[in-house]
Amino acid sequence: MSSISSRRLSKELMEIKNDGCPVGINLVQADDFSTWLFTLEVMGESLYKNEQFTLQFRFDEQYPISSPAVQFVVTDGRQAPIHPHVYSNGHICASILGNEWSPVLSVIAVCVTLQSMLASCKKKQRPVDNDRYVKHAPENPKKTRFHYDDDTV
Amino acid sequence: MSDYDISDNEADYYDSDEMMEDYQNDDDQDEDDMEMDDYNDDFRISAGSKQKSYEVDYKSLSQSSVEKTMKEDVDHICGIFGVEPAIASLLLRHADWNKEPLIERYMENATKVLVDAGVAIPEPVAEPTPVRTHHSVDKLSTGSASRRSTRSSSKLLSSLTSPTRSSAQKSSFSSPSSSSSSISASKSRTKDKLSEEPEQKSFTCPICFDDSPSLKPLSLICGHPACSGCWNAYTVSKIRDEAEHCIRCMTEGCAIVAPDDFIHDILLSDAAAPPDSNPDDNQTAWVRFQELLVRSFVGANPKLKFCPYPGCTNTVSCPAAASKSVLTTMVPIVSCGAKGIPKDASAAAASSSSSSGVTTVTTTPPSSLYDKEHVFCFGCPIESDHRPVVCAVARLWLKKCEDDSETANWIKSNTKECSQCQSTIEKNGGCNHMTCKKCKYEFCWVCMGPWSEHGTAWYSCNRYDEKGGVEARDAQSRSRASLERYLHYYNRWANHEQSAKLSIELYAKTEKKMEDMQITSSLTWIEVQFMRKAVEVVERCRSTLKWTYAMAYYLAKGNEKDLFEDNQRDLEKAVEDLSELLESPIESENIPVLRQKVTDKTVYVQKRNEIVLEDTATGFQDGRWRWNVSVDGFEEPPEELMVN
């Protein structure tokens, strides 16, 4: 693994261990520099009260130049949140995971962004093209080219 | 007179001012003349000095001459706005190279234009999210206080500045760089860079978290720092993986665009490019970046088109075909002048970079016909010569072939129609005694006649001439007329395509033989070249013929079509004769005779080809051709001419 990516991730991990995660976010697993797991809860009043989701990060050697592959875990009884930008296979349509990714963003920043995406949701529903997408979706959500057309949620 | 000079009669055809406007400047002329001369030698056999009605004026431009034009635009903007070339270039790219609207908007609100193009920092008050802006050193310590504190306030957190220490917020460059073009974009700021020199201690790159003392923080005018290694990796990845020529600051939400000299330095200069980066990757990325710029310029100008052949970096300028409406009256087939396709992309990049002034991508053996010239249509995406037929009809035909030919062929060879109800039937087993599932009509699969006439001959049918059978087959062919009609044209189209391929293969063999003959007989190289010319002509004429079938398929019935098909027939006959001559065995004693015959025939075939092209092109200019379907850009044909 390239030194930049592992150095960066080890620093991020150190920060998390020292400073802790923001409220509602917990590190579950970060045994290596390829896959990390977090649990995510939305705090306060929201449609997702008392629900807990698991978020998976996968890093390639180009991280942080290229974005991590981020998705909700939908195995072992865990569910993806019902949200207009989250597909039932756990894939997430969010611009910061695609063309608006910036190397300055970090794992925690992504978690927080997704947390606030859920918090601001007005109506629990799947994306309109959910069935079609899930049927043909690639295993890695980074291989999908999403259209980011909705800025409201 | 060179071929691309506009002759007087040409001006009559394309008399619209807009079309005749030549955007190219005269000082490009010399270089282009040279390129075009090379091109003429190879391409034009009968050196017709006069412009033909089926030809179009165009110019081939190398990447460097396009760059020259770009530079003129940039200089123009520099002169008007009083900005540096790097800034002017970014402004122009942002405005899609449309100078006039850019100038207008700039005069109206210069700041807004600069901010939109990513060359100036927006006013901090306008920012919805706490983006750190560092206009001056004084603000630095307060500016970076947003660390993770805004996390729940908005979804687009710009926070995550975690590792940046405030002391690291330097927009300047630590070492007083030795190279002339300093990497720090802060030179476009009025602030000087050396004054901030001293407190350059613990810089930690916010991207890779490296904090080694030798690390140099680099930033654009926005002041968001990162180490050279990250900048380099980011730039290379943007250029190589995303084909992006607009390289923005890495910080999220920051719209500042890296100027070209920054990109150059981060990739190539000794002072700034990270020592551990791969020099080949850097070089490739820089070459690619230049190409992307040219592509963006060419893409924004309707008078220019980038050569679509892989690995080619030439551009063709064809002002006559710049507007879509002229495509109903002309077929703008152009060539960038280069030949062949490089073995692999990297070789292409290397050859075009090493000799940026020279157009032709040099390829291996010179005589091979596989090194095809880069001929393409300026008006549509078809990457070959589709004369005489216009773009809209050519596309219609290709689409039809793509959609229908396989299906049609399958239906034709695997199915028949019930002679009573015309249902299409596929026989997938059993005897010849068919019973239509739909209308219960009983018939013989072999002769299509009613089964009642067959008596007890269950497994054979020898009654071809039986009245019932003949009638049934007639009915069948009538009902399949449109399918048959399509296949008639398609098969001839496909045949010419195939024959053209075969004749090239034949030539490859013949050439070998002729090389041998040069050694064994007294013939010189020049004397055996007639074969090469003949094959070239056959290939070109077969391309014409191929497309005449596409055209004829869509031509409405009438005298015009009859005349067209007469010309087509004459050309076809001549081409087939010549093809046959080429097949004849070559012995050293019959060479002079063969040579005479082939040369005569070649000249004749060329004449016939010219007649077809000329007549069709004139027809388009006069609006003589009528179609049997509705075609983009043409008048809707009257009902009686339409074919379903």
TrEMBL record, chain A:
<protein>
    <submittedName>
        <fullName>Ubiquitin-conjugating enzyme/RWD-like protein</fullName>
    </submittedName>
</protein>
<feature type="domain" description="UBC core">
    <location>
        <begin position="4"/>
        <end position="153"/>
    </location>
</feature>
<dbReference type="InterPro" id="IPR000608">
    <property type="entry name" value="UBC"/>
</dbReference>
<dbReference type="InterPro" id="IPR016135">
    <property type="entry name" value="UBQ-conjugating_enzyme/RWD"/>
</dbReference>
<dbReference type="InterPro" id="IPR050113">
    <property type="entry name" value="Ub_conjugating_enzyme"/>
</dbReference>
<keyword id="KW-0833">Ubl conjugation pathway</keyword>
<dbReference type="Pfam" id="PF00179">
    <property type="entry name" value="UQ_con"/>
</dbReference>
TrEMBL record, chain B:
<keyword id="KW-0677">Repeat</keyword>
<dbReference type="InterPro" id="IPR048962">
    <property type="entry name" value="ARIH1-like_UBL"/>
</dbReference>
<protein>
    <recommendedName>
        <fullName>RBR-type E3 ubiquitin transferase</fullName>
        <ecNumber>2.3.2.31</ecNumber>
    </recommendedName>
</protein>
<dbReference type="InterPro" id="IPR001841">
    <property type="entry name" value="Znf_RING"/>
</dbReference>
<keyword id="KW-0833">Ubl conjugation pathway</keyword>
<keyword id="KW-0479">Metal-binding</keyword>
<keyword id="KW-0862">Zinc</keyword>
<dbReference type="InterPro" id="IPR044066">
    <property type="entry name" value="TRIAD_supradom"/>
</dbReference>
<feature type="compositionally biased region" description="Low complexity">
    <location>
        <begin position="140"/>
        <end position="187"/>
    </location>
</feature>
<dbReference type="InterPro" id="IPR045840">
    <property type="entry name" value="Ariadne"/>
</dbReference>
<dbReference type="Pfam" id="PF22191">
    <property type="entry name" value="IBR_1"/>
</dbReference>
<dbReference type="GO" id="GO:0061630">
    <property type="term" value="F:ubiquitin protein ligase activity"/>
</dbReference>
<dbReference type="Pfam" id="PF21235">
    <property type="entry name" value="UBA_ARI1"/>
</dbReference>
<dbReference type="GO" id="GO:0008270">
    <property type="term" value="F:zinc ion binding"/>
</dbReference>
<keyword id="KW-0863">Zinc-finger</keyword>
<dbReference type="InterPro" id="IPR013083">
    <property type="entry name" value="Znf_RING/FYVE/PHD"/>
</dbReference>
<dbReference type="InterPro" id="IPR031127">
    <property type="entry name" value="E3_UB_ligase_RBR"/>
</dbReference>
<feature type="domain" description="RING-type">
    <location>
        <begin position="205"/>
        <end position="249"/>
    </location>
</feature>
<dbReference type="Pfam" id="PF19422">
    <property type="entry name" value="Ariadne"/>
</dbReference>
<feature type="region of interest" description="Disordered">
    <location>
        <begin position="1"/>
        <end position="39"/>
    </location>
</feature>
<dbReference type="GO" id="GO:0016567">
    <property type="term" value="P:protein ubiquitination"/>
</dbReference>
<keyword id="KW-0808">Transferase</keyword>
